[in-house]
Amino acid sequence: MSKSFDMIVIGAGPGGYVAAIRGAQLGLSVGIVEREHLGGICLNWGCIPTKAMLRTSEVFHLMHRAKEFGLTAQGIGFDLEAVVKRSRGIAKQLNSGVGHLLKKNKVTVLMGEATIPAKGRVQVKTDTGVEDLSAPNIVIATGARARELPGLEADGDLVWTYKHALVPKRMPKKLLVIGSGAIGIEFASFYNTLGADTTVVEVMDRILPVEDAEISGFAKKQFEKQGMTIREKAMVKHLDRGKGKVTAHIEVAGKVTKEEFDTVISAVGIVGNTEGLGLEALGVKVDRTHVVTDPHCRTGIEGVYAIGDIAGAPWLAHKASHEGVMVAELIAGGHPHAVEPDSIAGCTYCQPQVASVGLTEAQAKEKGFDIKVGRFPFIGNGKAIALGEPEGLVKTVFDAKTGALLGAHMVGAEVTELIQGYVIGRQLETTEQDLMQTVFPHPTLSEMMHEAVLDAWGRAVHF
């Protein structure tokens, strides 16, 4: 006998479980299907456990700087097994929290593999058999997984994906990270800080290629100061695996050289989890492993929606969650605003942190804007100096004609927290005058946000 719902969500990652909860809050009967872990990749194998590990490396780094702060710390070391145990414990705690929230909101949870045999129908293969479900609205939130390139496939021993890097069996001595997006750079930062001799290879002309070029360049200098080797416009062509070592064939400017490493982390992008759902037979369009949707996440097939990583860039948990809310409200008869990708912040939790929202300077110029650019360095901020974090930069990009904030870009301590101020500014269509007239508290890092706006109009005071 089929169970009927108003809405069925496939996938319980950030977008999926938020969609389910919001739908239930709006009075819909909701079922959610998950094949692995409540909370999805982000909570269990991504955003949360990586931040726990990066916090460990940050504290470790500060302990080595104890003398700068008038402190004494001796015999500084780490227990990798304990570091991982803490990280996994935090993920487990939040996984349980998602289960509690779904239960509290009376969402029916089914653990198993879902397929969509026809519009309005979902079949779930569970440990005990097959369950038939029906609903006029189906939300696909199955997320994505690590992309693997031929010759660079992970084996869990010498070559790792992000999952292997989160539960390492050993501490790498000489590490190669392939790819310098957020995932690659965060793992490079973690292992480099703990002492691994780390090399990052990036096929594009700069690391963190989605960021503003000036911010990427600043970050690169800081990473190199920390001992990382950065190779841009480079490609790992092949990996020869031996006993306890990997020989990487690295091509730069047409010349291939060989280098030995004991560990390789492949972070070359993601692939949408579209297989086995029955999307092709249903008529849902898939482009390069990602479901094609309109701005409201509708697939073009009535009653079928796709949210989060499977629906394309930006591949961010907070984007997925917001899409989940939007779709639930749409299904419940509301008229929510579409998610605007340009107003979604991107954050990378390396050391120093990197955060941005909106257009880069180059993108603004390409779009034909007459722009004003403001900059303010951390060295000009009292709080940054007091924290012992004088290396960083806040950059703003404005439309010179209207004063609209086109983009904001930061590198330095705690910028992943600061960026939300500019996100709110963009959401409220704030102009440079609004920001200039806002009183920022002193002493705070946020004062640099004010000064970077003032600088765009030649009014910066403290630098």
From TrEMBL:
Gene3D superfamilies: 3.30.390.30, FAD/NAD(P)-binding domain. Pfam families: Pyr_redox_2, Pyr_redox_dim. It is an enzyme of class 1 (oxidoreductase). It is found in: Cytoplasm. Binds 1 FAD per subunit. It comes from the Bacteria. Coiled coil: none annotated. Keywords: Cytoplasm, Disulfide bond, FAD, Flavoprotein, NAD, Oxidoreductase, Redox-active center. Its cofactor is FAD. Its EC number is 1.8.1.4. Residues 5-324 form the FAD/NAD(P)-binding domain. It catalyses: N(6)-[(R)-dihydrolipoyl]-L-lysyl-[protein] + NAD(+) = N(6)-[(R)-lipoyl]-L-lysyl-[protein] + NADH + H(+). Residues 344-452 form the Pyridine nucleotide-disulphide oxidoreductase dimerisation domain. Its main location: cytoplasm. PANTHER family: DIHYDROLIPOYL DEHYDROGENASE (PTHR22912:SF217), DISULFIDE OXIDOREDUCTASE (PTHR22912). Belongs to the class-I pyridine nucleotide-disulfide oxidoreductase family. The active site is a redox-active disulfide bond. This is Dihydrolipoyl dehydrogenase. It comes from Marivita lacus.
